[in-house]
Design brief:
By secondary structure, the chain is an all-beta fold. It has no helices and 14 strands. It has one domain: glycosyl hydrolase (family 31) (Immunoglobulin-like, Sandwich), CATH 2.60.40.1760. Strand 6 and strand 7 form a beta hairpin. The radius of gyration is 17 Å and the shape is globular. The two termini are 13 Å apart.
């Protein structure tokens, strides 16, 4: 069996409850929802941290077994009111600042302002988990791709030696080396951030 690797990202907007949802493949949890996509693939969990932060976790093994996080100590007190609903082929989690929308067929996640403007969206097939192994240890290779506007810039990701400031359109290996420091946080010029968290 593969070692558990769950990826999650926190959408932290810099401009920056309980609910009942009715759908066969949507499960209510105390701080959000879990969606089991109809077409298979990783199960997606949305957990509301605050009006401006929703933690999204995708699990190819579909059980969300809790293990130690490599980058997040989740002691944040949950705050803000939120609601969840199903409309057509989408599960929607609404807070006072943002809406997180999960496609019930594919598990694709999008974030919108309450006015309806898109903040961030996964590409249609932008998330993959590929089983692999190294030196006898099993794991998943993760690919994560988002849509972005042409004039959007991405900053952060740590200390790298390529002399690049804007990482838009670039592939970045997040690994620690002698003079390289990997920080799994990216900040958009459109006022949101993404923190990747790998859980073993």
């Amino acid at each position: 069996m593969y070692k558990k690797i769950i990826y999650s990202f926190l959408l932290c907007l810099i401009f920056c409850g309980g609910v009942q949802v009715q759908a066969q493949n949507v499960v209510n949890i105390s701080d959000g929802i879990i969606v089991n996509p109809k077409q298979g693939g990783a199960t997606v969990r949305l957990r509301v941290i605050s009006d401006r932060i929703i933690r999204v976790t995708a699990d190819p093994e579909k059980d969300f077994r809790q293990s130690a996080s490599l980058s997040v100590i989740d002691t944040l007190k949950r705050s803000g009111k939120w609601s969840a609903s199903v409309f057509g082929n989408e599960a929607i989690v609404k807070t006072g600042a943002i809406n997180a929308i999960v496609d019930l067929s594919t598990g694709r996640v999008r974030f919108l302002e309450n006015k309806g403007n898109t903040i961030l969206a996964e590409k249609e097939t932008g998330r993959t988990f590929e089983p692999d192994s190294y030196d006898g240890d099993s794991f998943y290779k993760l690919t994560q791709v988002f849509e972005s506007s042409q004039n959007e810039a991405f900053y952060g990701l740590g200390q790298h030696q390529e002399g690049i400031m804007n990482y838009k359109g670039r592939q970045v290996l997040l690994a620690q080396n002698n003079t390289e420091v990997a920080v799994p946080f990216v900040l958009s010029s459109r006022n949101y951030g993404i923190l990747w968290d790998i859980i073993l």
